[in-house]
User: Fold this.
Amino acid sequence: GESVGLHLPTLSVQEGDNSIINCAYSNSASDYFIWYKQESGKGPQFIIDIRSNMDKRQGQRVTVLLNKTVKHLSLQIAATQPGDSAVYFCAEKEGAQKLVFGQGTRLTINP
Amino acid sequence: DAGITQSPRHKVTETGTPVTLRCHQTENHRYMYWYRQDPGHGLRLIHYSYGVKDTDKGEVSDGYSVSRSKTEDFLLTLESATSSQTSVYFCAISESIVAGEGNSPLHFGNGTRLTVT
Assistant:
């Protein structure tokens, strides 16, 4: 997660469209995954989590999909709003007290 | 912000000086963490605590020490600051984050931006 990163992958979407943010994780033994949102000047904010015994989990306007076969995680945001603009990153739990964070994707909402 | 307060929010210090960052929580969570965030890296764990006076090292602990004398407070100290410690420091808390049924997410504070000149 990099709120200060200069070269993050960027996803631009139109307001009202759905957004899909992807994350590849590295450890097939990871059993718990979390998505965070980070706005400029703020700390990461928990969005949704999923355990490895699940393929899908839904929250309010967000859905997380887990594909363990290809070690891929995605976050879907429905009806994207201007307030969704932020850096989004995933984290995988590789062991007790060990979360590994991705570097993030910057989501930009076009009016 | 899950009842987490970090202080100071910004600090500029000179190389070689000691610096202490404070994290205060009102959630009575057992686990507290210090992370740093730098361009080109994800969040990296410095130290964590699993109870009063119980702490352990993370992946980037060199040059840092921590103390937890009360459940609500977790201090991060840079004994002699170096320019490589210029970063944004985040405190996080969780109820539990162990294998099995105890998984719970980390909740973060809003960070301290530290500049070492």
Q: What stands out?
A: Residues 31 and 52 of chain A are 5 Å apart (CA to CA).
